[in-house]
Amino acid sequence: QVQLVESGGGLVQSGGSLRLSCAASGSIFSINVMGWYRQAPGKQRELVAAISSGGVPNYADSVKGRFTISRDNAKNTVYLQMNSLKPEDTAVYYCNADLIVYYYSDLEDYWGQGTQVTVSS
Questions:
Q1: Nearest-10 Cα torsion for 25, 23, 7, 118
Q2: Nearest Cα to Cα of residue 33 among 115, 109, 104
Q3: Parallel, antiparallel, or unpaired: how do β-strands 46-51 and 57-59 relate?
Q4: 53 sits in which H/E element
Q5: What is the DSSP string of 61-107?
Q6: 22 with 4: CB under 8 angstroms?
Q7: pLDDT for 76-103, tens place per residue?
Q8: C-alpha pair distances (Å), 87 with each of 36, 91, 118
Q9: Taking the CB of the first residue and of the last residue of the chain, which one, N or C, has fewer CB atoms within 10 A?
Q10: What's the helix, strand, coil split of the chain in %, to 5?
Q11: Band of residue 75 on the pLDDT scale cut at 50, 70, 90
């Protein structure tokens, strides 16, 4: 069983910072892309940032220059450093990973449970 566990969410003031972490555990052979999505009330889930196994990042336009995604392949962990937070960043943030488990060659998509980020004005 593969699990993705997020941590680091909470309540911050506008302009503040927060760092999210997501650790993947289980019988993992390798992880391809890892990323963060978010879903605000009444809105569709959207990609925030993603990072390849080689460390190449991709960001939504709304967070460029404010958020930084990184990963530690040895720890199967992805991070999202969020700076200059705005009220519109308020959402549940979900970790995502495309990975291969041991003894199974297919690339599969996994999701974390989500962590709440609330930015007050």
A1: -120
A2: 109
A3: antiparallel
A4: none
A5: TTTTTTEEEEEEGGGTEEEEEE-S--GGG-EEEEEEEEEEETT--SE
A6: yes
A7: 999 999 999 999 999 999 999 999 998 8
A8: 18, 9, 7
A9: N
A10: 5, 60, 35
A11: very high
* Type of residue at 16: G
Residue 118 is encoded by which pair of tokens?
């609330």
Q: Which two tokens stand for residue 5?
A: 């566990």
CA pair distance 14, 89, nearest whole angstrom: 9
Which residue is it, tokens 């392949």? 73
- 68: number of CA atoms within 13 Å, CB side? 7
Tell me the C-alpha distance between 66 and 93, whole Å.
Answer: 16
